[in-house]
Amino acid sequence: MNLSEASTPLSRLLPPLILGGAGFSYQVFRNPNSAQALEVLKRAFQLGLRAIDTSAYYHPSELLLGEALSHPDFALHYSRDQYLLMTKVGRITATQFDYSPAWVRQSVLRSLQRLRTSYLDVVFCHDVEFVPDEEVLQAVGVLLDMVREGRIKYVGISGYCIDVLTRIARRVREEYSRPLDIVQNWAQMTLQNDRLAREGLAALREAGVSCVCNSSPLAIGLLRANGVPVGDLGDFHPAPPGLRLAAKEAAEYVAGQGESLAALALRHSIRRAQSESTTDLRVTTIMGVTSIAELEDNLATARQVLRISNEPRWLWTVDAGPSTDFGSSKLEGEEDLQAAVREILGSWYDFCFPSPGDGWDVAAKRPVAAAL
Protein backbone atom coordinates (compact mmCIF):
# COMPACT_ATOMS: atom_id res chain seq x y z
CA MET A 1 0.00 0.00 0.00
CA ASN A 2 1.30 3.43 -0.93
CA LEU A 3 1.50 5.65 2.16
CA SER A 4 0.72 8.75 0.12
CA GLU A 5 -2.79 7.61 -0.83
CA ALA A 6 -5.03 10.08 0.99
CA SER A 7 -8.10 7.92 0.37
CA THR A 8 -6.65 5.32 2.73
CA PRO A 9 -7.85 5.84 6.32
CA LEU A 10 -5.01 7.21 8.40
CA SER A 11 -5.75 4.58 11.05
CA ARG A 12 -4.51 1.96 8.58
CA LEU A 13 -1.25 3.80 7.95
CA LEU A 14 -0.19 5.06 11.35
CA PRO A 15 2.28 2.73 13.12
CA PRO A 16 2.19 2.23 16.89
CA LEU A 17 5.47 4.12 17.33
CA ILE A 18 6.28 7.55 15.92
CA LEU A 19 9.61 9.37 16.15
CA GLY A 20 9.23 12.79 17.77
CA GLY A 21 11.14 15.66 16.19
CA ALA A 22 11.35 17.85 19.30
CA GLY A 23 14.65 16.14 20.10
CA PHE A 24 16.16 18.17 17.27
CA SER A 25 15.10 21.51 18.77
CA TYR A 26 16.59 24.15 21.00
CA GLN A 27 13.91 23.42 23.61
CA VAL A 28 15.22 19.99 24.65
CA PHE A 29 18.71 19.68 23.15
CA ARG A 30 21.85 21.75 23.36
CA ASN A 31 23.15 22.61 19.91
CA PRO A 32 20.90 20.48 17.69
CA ASN A 33 22.75 19.89 14.44
CA SER A 34 22.58 18.09 11.11
CA ALA A 35 25.02 15.35 12.14
CA GLN A 36 22.84 14.46 15.15
CA ALA A 37 19.66 14.36 13.06
CA LEU A 38 21.24 12.32 10.26
CA GLU A 39 22.71 9.72 12.63
CA VAL A 40 19.49 9.31 14.60
CA LEU A 41 17.28 9.09 11.51
CA LYS A 42 19.53 6.60 9.75
CA ARG A 43 19.42 4.31 12.77
CA ALA A 44 15.69 4.89 13.31
CA PHE A 45 14.88 3.88 9.74
CA GLN A 46 17.14 0.83 10.02
CA LEU A 47 15.21 -0.21 13.13
CA GLY A 48 11.84 0.19 11.43
CA LEU A 49 10.48 3.58 12.45
CA ARG A 50 8.66 5.09 9.49
CA ALA A 51 6.73 8.05 10.91
CA ILE A 52 8.09 11.38 12.13
CA ASP A 53 6.25 14.11 14.04
CA THR A 54 7.71 17.61 14.25
CA SER A 55 6.67 21.28 14.25
CA ALA A 56 7.81 24.64 12.94
CA TYR A 57 7.94 25.58 16.64
CA TYR A 58 10.60 22.90 17.28
CA HIS A 59 13.22 24.97 15.49
CA PRO A 60 15.48 23.93 13.76
CA SER A 61 13.90 20.45 13.64
CA GLU A 62 12.22 20.83 10.24
CA LEU A 63 15.42 22.09 8.63
CA LEU A 64 17.55 19.30 10.12
CA LEU A 65 15.02 16.61 9.25
CA GLY A 66 14.71 17.88 5.69
CA GLU A 67 18.45 17.81 5.26
CA ALA A 68 18.66 14.27 6.67
CA LEU A 69 15.74 12.88 4.67
CA SER A 70 17.17 14.26 1.43
CA HIS A 71 20.60 12.78 2.16
CA PRO A 72 21.68 10.10 -0.33
CA ASP A 73 21.60 7.50 2.45
CA PHE A 74 17.84 8.05 2.56
CA ALA A 75 17.01 8.95 -1.01
CA LEU A 76 18.62 5.77 -2.31
CA HIS A 77 16.89 3.47 0.17
CA TYR A 78 13.59 5.06 1.18
CA SER A 79 11.19 6.64 -1.26
CA ARG A 80 8.89 9.37 0.04
CA ASP A 81 5.85 7.10 0.04
CA GLN A 82 7.55 4.73 2.50
CA TYR A 83 7.34 7.05 5.49
CA LEU A 84 4.97 9.54 7.09
CA LEU A 85 5.82 13.19 7.81
CA MET A 86 3.73 15.12 10.33
CA THR A 87 4.23 18.76 11.32
CA LYS A 88 2.29 21.64 12.90
CA VAL A 89 1.23 25.23 12.30
CA GLY A 90 0.09 28.13 14.45
CA ARG A 91 2.63 28.23 17.27
CA ILE A 92 5.67 30.35 16.47
CA THR A 93 7.43 30.89 19.82
CA ALA A 94 6.64 30.32 23.50
CA THR A 95 4.49 33.47 23.51
CA GLN A 96 3.66 34.04 19.85
CA PHE A 97 0.82 32.42 17.88
CA ASP A 98 -0.55 33.12 14.43
CA TYR A 99 -3.60 31.18 13.25
CA SER A 100 -4.53 33.59 10.47
CA PRO A 101 -5.33 31.98 7.09
CA ALA A 102 -2.39 33.74 5.42
CA TRP A 103 0.09 32.55 8.03
CA VAL A 104 -1.27 28.98 8.16
CA ARG A 105 -0.83 28.69 4.40
CA GLN A 106 2.60 30.32 4.50
CA SER A 107 3.68 28.04 7.35
CA VAL A 108 2.67 24.91 5.45
CA LEU A 109 4.51 26.07 2.34
CA ARG A 110 7.58 26.84 4.45
CA SER A 111 7.42 23.39 6.07
CA LEU A 112 7.23 21.77 2.65
CA GLN A 113 10.35 23.66 1.66
CA ARG A 114 12.19 22.94 4.90
CA LEU A 115 11.33 19.25 4.85
CA ARG A 116 12.13 19.08 1.13
CA THR A 117 8.94 17.29 0.20
CA SER A 118 6.04 17.91 -2.17
CA TYR A 119 3.39 16.95 0.39
CA LEU A 120 2.88 16.50 4.12
CA ASP A 121 1.05 13.47 5.46
CA VAL A 122 -0.39 15.25 8.50
CA VAL A 123 -0.56 18.88 9.59
CA PHE A 124 -1.78 19.75 13.09
CA CYS A 125 -2.93 23.07 14.48
CA HIS A 126 -0.44 23.40 17.33
CA ASP A 127 -1.46 23.94 21.00
CA VAL A 128 -5.01 24.97 20.23
CA GLU A 129 -5.90 25.91 23.82
CA PHE A 130 -3.81 29.09 23.48
CA VAL A 131 -6.05 30.68 20.85
CA PRO A 132 -9.82 31.26 20.40
CA ASP A 133 -11.77 28.28 19.03
CA GLU A 134 -12.99 30.31 16.06
CA GLU A 135 -9.42 30.88 14.89
CA VAL A 136 -8.68 27.17 15.16
CA LEU A 137 -11.77 26.33 13.10
CA GLN A 138 -10.73 28.85 10.46
CA ALA A 139 -7.21 27.39 10.36
CA VAL A 140 -8.61 23.87 9.97
CA GLY A 141 -10.58 25.16 6.98
CA VAL A 142 -7.37 26.42 5.36
CA LEU A 143 -5.71 23.04 5.94
CA LEU A 144 -8.68 21.27 4.39
CA ASP A 145 -8.32 23.53 1.35
CA MET A 146 -4.69 22.44 1.12
CA VAL A 147 -5.79 18.81 1.31
CA ARG A 148 -7.86 19.43 -1.81
CA GLU A 149 -4.81 21.02 -3.41
CA GLY A 150 -2.76 17.89 -2.73
CA ARG A 151 -0.25 19.56 -0.38
CA ILE A 152 -1.57 17.79 2.74
CA LYS A 153 -3.08 14.34 3.22
CA TYR A 154 -4.65 14.51 6.69
CA VAL A 155 -5.59 17.28 9.15
CA GLY A 156 -5.51 17.34 12.94
CA ILE A 157 -5.17 19.43 16.08
CA SER A 158 -2.78 19.13 19.00
CA GLY A 159 -2.70 20.42 22.55
CA TYR A 160 -2.74 19.57 26.24
CA CYS A 161 -6.25 20.47 27.43
CA ILE A 162 -8.47 17.48 26.71
CA ASP A 163 -11.71 19.42 27.05
CA VAL A 164 -10.54 21.95 24.44
CA LEU A 165 -9.43 19.22 22.04
CA THR A 166 -12.74 17.38 22.28
CA ARG A 167 -14.77 20.59 21.97
CA ILE A 168 -12.95 21.66 18.83
CA ALA A 169 -13.18 18.14 17.37
CA ARG A 170 -16.96 18.27 17.77
CA ARG A 171 -17.16 21.73 16.21
CA VAL A 172 -15.02 20.74 13.23
CA ARG A 173 -17.38 17.87 12.48
CA GLU A 174 -20.39 20.18 12.73
CA GLU A 175 -18.90 22.99 10.61
CA TYR A 176 -17.16 20.99 7.88
CA SER A 177 -19.41 17.90 7.80
CA ARG A 178 -16.39 15.69 8.31
CA PRO A 179 -14.31 14.81 11.37
CA LEU A 180 -10.71 15.62 12.07
CA ASP A 181 -8.42 12.83 10.93
CA ILE A 182 -6.23 12.88 14.02
CA VAL A 183 -5.73 14.53 17.43
CA GLN A 184 -2.48 14.75 19.39
CA ASN A 185 -2.38 15.09 23.17
CA TRP A 186 0.75 15.20 25.28
CA ALA A 187 1.75 13.76 28.68
CA GLN A 188 -1.68 12.46 29.62
CA MET A 189 -1.34 8.75 29.02
CA THR A 190 1.60 8.27 31.35
CA LEU A 191 2.47 6.84 34.75
CA GLN A 192 1.90 10.33 36.15
CA ASN A 193 -1.32 11.30 34.34
CA ASP A 194 -3.82 8.96 32.67
CA ARG A 195 -6.59 11.44 31.85
CA LEU A 196 -6.44 10.93 28.09
CA ALA A 197 -7.46 7.29 28.40
CA ARG A 198 -10.10 7.91 31.04
CA GLU A 199 -11.59 11.20 29.86
CA GLY A 200 -10.56 11.93 26.29
CA LEU A 201 -10.71 8.90 24.03
CA ALA A 202 -14.43 8.20 24.27
CA ALA A 203 -15.28 11.85 23.54
CA LEU A 204 -12.88 12.00 20.60
CA ARG A 205 -14.32 8.78 19.19
CA GLU A 206 -17.80 10.27 19.45
CA ALA A 207 -16.54 13.28 17.46
CA GLY A 208 -15.49 10.90 14.67
CA VAL A 209 -11.74 11.08 15.28
CA SER A 210 -10.10 7.83 14.15
CA CYS A 211 -6.49 8.44 15.29
CA VAL A 212 -5.09 9.77 18.56
CA CYS A 213 -1.39 10.33 19.23
CA ASN A 214 -0.14 10.18 22.79
CA SER A 215 3.06 12.22 22.80
CA SER A 216 5.52 12.75 25.68
CA PRO A 217 5.09 9.32 27.31
CA LEU A 218 7.80 10.41 29.79
CA ALA A 219 6.01 13.75 30.38
CA ILE A 220 8.73 15.68 28.51
CA GLY A 221 11.49 13.84 30.36
CA LEU A 222 9.98 14.17 33.84
CA LEU A 223 9.68 10.40 34.30
CA ARG A 224 13.34 9.47 34.17
CA ALA A 225 16.35 9.36 36.46
CA ASN A 226 18.28 12.38 35.19
CA GLY A 227 15.64 15.08 35.52
CA VAL A 228 13.85 17.21 32.97
CA PRO A 229 15.71 18.10 29.75
CA VAL A 230 17.29 21.53 29.50
CA GLY A 231 18.15 22.79 26.01
CA ASP A 232 19.61 26.01 24.68
CA LEU A 233 16.40 27.87 25.64
CA GLY A 234 16.74 26.93 29.31
CA ASP A 235 14.40 25.05 31.65
CA PHE A 236 10.93 25.34 30.10
CA HIS A 237 9.37 22.29 31.80
CA PRO A 238 5.96 23.07 33.39
CA ALA A 239 6.30 20.64 36.31
CA PRO A 240 6.35 22.46 39.69
CA PRO A 241 9.13 21.71 42.22
CA GLY A 242 6.97 19.31 44.26
CA LEU A 243 6.21 17.13 41.27
CA ARG A 244 9.84 17.15 40.17
CA LEU A 245 10.90 16.02 43.64
CA ALA A 246 8.30 13.24 43.69
CA ALA A 247 9.41 12.07 40.23
CA LYS A 248 13.03 12.01 41.40
CA GLU A 249 12.04 9.94 44.42
CA ALA A 250 10.10 7.54 42.19
CA ALA A 251 13.08 7.18 39.84
CA GLU A 252 15.36 6.38 42.77
CA TYR A 253 12.92 3.81 44.13
CA VAL A 254 12.52 2.10 40.75
CA ALA A 255 16.30 2.07 40.25
CA GLY A 256 16.62 0.39 43.64
CA GLN A 257 14.40 -2.39 42.28
CA GLY A 258 16.75 -2.90 39.35
CA GLU A 259 14.59 -1.08 36.80
CA SER A 260 14.58 2.26 34.99
CA LEU A 261 11.71 4.67 35.52
CA ALA A 262 12.01 5.78 31.88
CA ALA A 263 11.68 2.19 30.62
CA LEU A 264 8.81 1.46 33.01
CA ALA A 265 6.97 4.61 31.93
CA LEU A 266 7.52 4.02 28.21
CA ARG A 267 6.27 0.42 28.40
CA HIS A 268 3.23 1.61 30.33
CA SER A 269 2.33 4.24 27.73
CA ILE A 270 2.82 1.96 24.73
CA ARG A 271 0.86 -0.86 26.33
CA ARG A 272 -1.89 1.57 27.38
CA ALA A 273 -2.16 2.93 23.84
CA GLN A 274 -2.38 -0.57 22.41
CA SER A 275 -5.04 -1.63 24.90
CA GLU A 276 -7.15 1.45 24.13
CA SER A 277 -7.00 0.97 20.36
CA THR A 278 -10.18 -0.36 18.78
CA THR A 279 -11.47 -1.00 15.28
CA ASP A 280 -12.62 2.62 15.02
CA LEU A 281 -9.92 4.42 17.03
CA ARG A 282 -6.17 3.96 16.62
CA VAL A 283 -4.02 5.15 19.53
CA THR A 284 -0.28 5.52 18.93
CA THR A 285 2.75 6.74 20.89
CA ILE A 286 5.13 9.52 19.87
CA MET A 287 8.56 8.80 21.29
CA GLY A 288 11.07 11.61 21.52
CA VAL A 289 14.80 10.86 21.20
CA THR A 290 17.95 12.97 21.02
CA SER A 291 20.66 10.38 20.34
CA ILE A 292 21.29 6.92 18.89
CA ALA A 293 21.83 5.53 22.38
CA GLU A 294 18.49 6.87 23.55
CA LEU A 295 16.79 5.59 20.39
CA GLU A 296 18.18 2.08 20.79
CA ASP A 297 17.31 1.98 24.50
CA ASN A 298 13.75 3.10 23.79
CA LEU A 299 13.24 0.61 20.98
CA ALA A 300 14.65 -2.21 23.09
CA THR A 301 12.08 -1.23 25.71
CA ALA A 302 9.32 -1.09 23.11
CA ARG A 303 10.21 -4.59 21.94
CA GLN A 304 9.17 -5.85 25.35
CA VAL A 305 5.64 -4.70 24.56
CA LEU A 306 5.34 -4.87 20.75
CA ARG A 307 6.09 -7.64 18.33
CA ILE A 308 8.26 -7.26 15.25
CA SER A 309 6.45 -7.60 11.92
CA ASN A 310 7.60 -8.67 8.46
CA GLU A 311 5.67 -5.79 6.88
CA PRO A 312 7.87 -4.01 4.30
CA ARG A 313 6.62 -0.54 5.31
CA TRP A 314 7.84 -0.74 8.90
CA LEU A 315 8.89 -3.38 11.35
CA TRP A 316 6.44 -2.58 14.10
CA THR A 317 3.03 -4.22 13.93
CA VAL A 318 -0.10 -2.14 14.40
CA ASP A 319 -2.07 -4.66 16.45
CA ALA A 320 0.75 -6.27 18.42
CA GLY A 321 0.28 -7.95 21.76
CA PRO A 322 2.92 -8.29 24.48
CA SER A 323 6.13 -9.92 23.38
CA THR A 324 6.44 -13.57 24.40
CA ASP A 325 9.87 -12.99 25.90
CA PHE A 326 8.43 -10.55 28.44
CA GLY A 327 7.21 -13.14 30.92
CA SER A 328 4.04 -13.01 32.98
CA SER A 329 5.99 -12.95 36.23
CA LYS A 330 7.74 -9.77 35.17
CA LEU A 331 4.45 -8.28 34.08
CA GLU A 332 3.06 -8.93 37.55
CA GLY A 333 6.13 -7.34 39.10
CA GLU A 334 5.73 -4.41 36.74
CA GLU A 335 2.22 -3.74 38.00
CA ASP A 336 3.61 -3.63 41.53
CA LEU A 337 6.28 -1.14 40.44
CA GLN A 338 3.68 1.04 38.73
CA ALA A 339 1.55 1.02 41.87
CA ALA A 340 4.60 2.01 43.95
CA VAL A 341 5.33 4.92 41.60
CA ARG A 342 1.75 6.17 41.90
CA GLU A 343 1.97 5.92 45.69
CA ILE A 344 5.19 7.96 45.70
CA LEU A 345 3.61 10.56 43.42
CA GLY A 346 0.71 10.80 45.84
CA SER A 347 -1.36 13.91 45.21
CA TRP A 348 0.76 14.65 42.13
CA TYR A 349 -0.76 11.67 40.33
CA ASP A 350 -3.11 12.98 37.63
CA PHE A 351 -1.88 16.53 38.29
CA CYS A 352 -2.39 18.63 35.15
CA PHE A 353 0.14 21.18 33.98
CA PRO A 354 -1.29 24.70 33.58
CA SER A 355 -1.85 25.11 29.86
CA PRO A 356 -2.12 27.91 29.02
CA GLY A 357 -2.56 28.97 32.68
CA ASP A 358 -3.95 32.07 34.36
CA GLY A 359 -1.14 34.21 32.98
CA TRP A 360 -2.32 33.80 29.39
CA ASP A 361 -4.99 35.81 27.59
CA VAL A 362 -6.59 33.42 25.07
CA ALA A 363 -8.55 36.15 23.26
CA ALA A 364 -5.42 38.28 22.79
CA LYS A 365 -3.11 35.26 22.26
CA ARG A 366 -0.43 36.64 24.56
CA PRO A 367 0.58 36.84 28.24
CA VAL A 368 -1.84 38.77 30.42
CA ALA A 369 0.74 41.41 31.34
CA ALA A 370 1.39 42.08 27.67
CA ALA A 371 -2.33 42.37 26.98
CA LEU A 372 -2.89 45.16 29.53
Strand-helix topology:
Layout (H helix, E strand, L loop, with lengths): L16 E4 L13 H13 L4 E3 L7 H9 L2 H4 L8 E6 L1 E3 L2 E2 L3 H15 L4 E6 L7 H16 L3 E8 L2 H15 L5 E5 L8 H12 L4 E5 L25 H16 L4 H16 L5 E7 L3 H12 L24 H18 L14 E2 L4 E2 H4 L1
Parallel strand pairs: 1-2, 1-10, 2-3, 3-6, 6-7, 7-8, 8-9, 9-10
Antiparallel strand pairs: 4-5, 11-12
Helix pairs in contact: 1-2, 2-4, 5-6, 6-7, 8-11, 9-10
Keywords: Oxidoreductase
GO molecular function: D-arabinose 1-dehydrogenase [NAD(P)+] activity
GO cellular component, one term: cytosol
Question: Which features does this protein show?
Answer:
372 residues, alpha/beta, TIM Barrel, 8-stranded parallel β-barrel, two-stranded antiparallel ribbon, 12 helices, 12 strands, globular, disordered N terminus, D-arabinose 1-dehydrogenase [NAD(P)+] activity, oxidoreductase, NADP_OxRdtase_dom, D-arabinose 1-dehydrogenase, AKR
What does the model show?
- With 372 residues, this protein is of the alpha/beta class.
- The chain has an eight-stranded parallel barrel, surrounded by five helices.
- Strand 8 (182-186), helix 7 (195-206) and strand 9 form a beta-alpha-beta unit.
- The chain has helices at residues 34-46, 61-69, 72-75, 101-115, 133-148, 162-176, 195-206, 241-256, 261-276, 292-303, 328-345, 368-371, and strands at 17-20, 51-53, 84-89, 91-93, 96-97, 120-125, 152-159, 182-186, 211-215, 282-288, 360-361, 366-367.
- The protein is built from twelve helices and twelve strands.
- The radius of gyration is 19 Å and the shape is globular.
- The protein has one domain (10-241, 264-323): TIM Barrel (Alpha-Beta Barrel), CATH 3.20.20.100.
- The model is unreliable at 1-5 and 317-329 (pLDDT under 50).
- The termini are far apart.
- GO terms for molecular function: D-arabinose 1-dehydrogenase [NAD(P)+] activity.
- InterPro entries: AKR, NAD(P)_OxRdtase_dom_sf, NADP_OxRdtase_dom.
- Keywords: Oxidoreductase.
